[in-house]
Specification:
Layout: H1 3-11, E1 12-16, H2 17-29, E2 36-40, E3 44-49, H3 57-64
Antiparallel strand pairs: 1-3, 2-3
Helix pairs in contact: 2-3
Length: about 70
């Protein structure tokens, strides 16, 4: 895998509707000034973070994903 494809994979996550709602709340609550792009798929959202050292998906997913 080349660098660009790897970076895209690192910066992008597919979220359910509930996860997307919690993602937006998380970003707003923590006042992260990090841009992101959202693509609405059928029942999910493809979210791509702008490249930033401020926040990463590991921290976000730890905060928003609820294990069933």
């Amino acid at each position: 895998m080349n660098y660009i494809a790897e970076r895209e994979q690192y910066l992008t996550q597919e979220l359910s509707r509930d996860e997307y709602r919690r993602f937006v709340e998380y970003m707003d609550t923590n006042n992260f000034n990090v841009g992101y792009t959202v693509k609405k798929l059928d029942e999910t959202f493809n979210v791509r973070l702008d490249d930033s050292p401020v926040v990463n998906w590991f921290d976000i997913l730890e905060a928003i994903v609820i294990d069933d």
